[in-house]
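Pilot study result, target chain (131 residues):
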Amino acid sequence: MAILCPRCGREYDATLFGFGASIRCDCGSEVAPFPDLLSEEDQAESVQMPIDGTLDLHTFAPAEVKDLVPDYLEACREKGILRVRVVHGKGDGSMLKTVHAILGRMPGVESFEPADSCEGGWGATIVHLKP
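Predicted structure:
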């Protein structure tokens, strides 16, 4: 998983960001996996998240998930993407429970189920959206 510099777009491997730490890019911009860790200047230069049918929650703070998941799924629906893979990781299962609770309350969600083994197994959820 790559994290992009908000200023120049250079990719950094997510493993560089231990415990949410930030690093300084060659262009001088601060790069962090969680936007609230960036300075106000760097937050203003945020990078758009691609709407491609896969939402990887590993680089987001748990507090961001409640708004992020519905917003991302709605953006997918608007683009005609009706099958979405949400990667929440395996961990202790708390993120999975949070994601499933959110999905269960969304009227635009037709159904959801754990991904098969080649798509992340129980570390990801496949969401089917209503057209």
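One observation from the pilot: The mean pLDDT is 83. A full batch analysis is planned for the follow-on phase.
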